[in-house]
Amino acid sequence: MEFFKYEAAGNDFIMLDRFSGGNETTPDEARRLCARRTGVGADGVIEMLPSDSCDLKMRILNADGSEAQMCGNGARALFLFALDRGVLDSDEATVETLSGARRVSRAKTQHRGQAPVLRFSVDMGVPKYRRADIPMEGQPTEEAVSIELPLESRDPVTVTCVSMGNPHCVVFVQDVNGYPVQNVGPLLETHRFFPERTNVEFVEILDDGNLEARVWERGVGETLACGTGACASVVAASVNGLIPKRASVFLPGGALVVDWTEDGVLLTGPARHVFDGKTVH
C-alpha cells in the first residue's frame, strides 16, 4: 500500500489517497500503521476522500484506531497533500469533516533561514463551552468554565472545557514544562465526567499574546502539537479573562496562531511533506 507522510507543527500523519476509490482503513490497520516501532509511526491516519458537499472529505483515525471528529493540524496537512497530488490547484478549499465543513486556505509563507515554511489557515468553526456541547456530565446549559474536577489519588484540578467540534479540557498551570502531563493527562482523558473521553491541554500563560502548551490527545497520548487543542487553549484563556482573543500558542512541535472572532476561530500554522513509502503487506 502506498502512503505519504506529512507533519504539521510536529503532529505527524500517514496520508492515504482514497480520492479515486479503495477500501477504508480499519481501526486495526490504523493501529498497526501508527505504531512507532513496528509500523510507519504517526499520531494518526488521514484518508483523502471525495465529498458530495465540499472539495474534499477528511477521515481521521487516531493511533489507537478511534475515529476523530476534527483535526486542525490534519486539515492543513490534507490541504497540502491535495495540492501535491493534483487534486486541488486553488488557494483555498472546503473540507468535509465529522464536525462539519471547514475552509482551508494558503497563508503567507515564512522563512526559516533560507528555507521557505509553507503555512495554511483553517476556519475551525465556533467554539462552544456548555457542558452539553463538550459533552460533560452535569447541568447541560452550564458553561464549563473554571470547574473543579476531582481526581483519584491527587488533588482536584480546575478546568475549563471547550468543544472545537471535539472535546477539550484545559488546565492552566504555572510551569508547563515541569507539570506531570504523563500522569494527569490520562486521568482527565478518561475521567467519568467525559462520556466520550477528552483531549487535555496544559497551558502556561506567558503574556497577553502568548501561551505555552502541552497536549494529551485522546486516543494518542502526549503529542508535539494539536490544532484544535491550541484553539481550545486560547478560547479557554480568553473566557477566563487571561488573554485577548488572538494569541500565539507555543507547543513542543512549533508555534500556531489562533484568532477568535465573531465568525469563529481561525488557526494558522505550517504543514510539510516529509516522505513517501509503501508497505509490504
UniProtKB/TrEMBL annotation:
Pfam families in the record: DAP_epimerase
Pathway: Amino-acid biosynthesis; L-lysine biosynthesis via DAP pathway; DL-2,6-diaminopimelate from LL-2,6-diaminopimelate: step 1/1
GO MF terms, alphabetically ordered: diaminopimelate epimerase activity
Keyword Repressor: no
Active-site residues per Swiss-Prot or TrEMBL entry: C71, C226
Protein keywords: Amino-acid biosynthesis, Cytoplasm, Isomerase, Lysine biosynthesis
EC number(s) from the headed UniProt entry: 5.1.1.7
Keyword Acyltransferase: no
Catalytic reactions of this protein: (2S,6S)-2,6-diaminopimelate = meso-2,6-diaminopimelate
Localization of this protein: Cytoplasm
Site (Could be important to modulate the pK values of the two catalytic cysteine residues): H168, E217
One GO-annotated biological process of the protein: lysine biosynthetic process via diaminopimelate
UniProt cross-references to InterPro entries, sorted A to Z: DAP_epimerase_AS, DAP_epimerase_DapF
Superkingdom, natural source: Bacteria
Subunit structure: Homodimer.
Protein role: Catalyzes the stereoinversion of LL-2,6-diaminopimelate (L,L-DAP) to meso-diaminopimelate (meso-DAP), a precursor of L-lysine and an essential component of the bacterial peptidoglycan.
Protein's name in the database: Diaminopimelate epimerase
Organism the protein comes from: Candidatus Anoxymicrobium japonicum
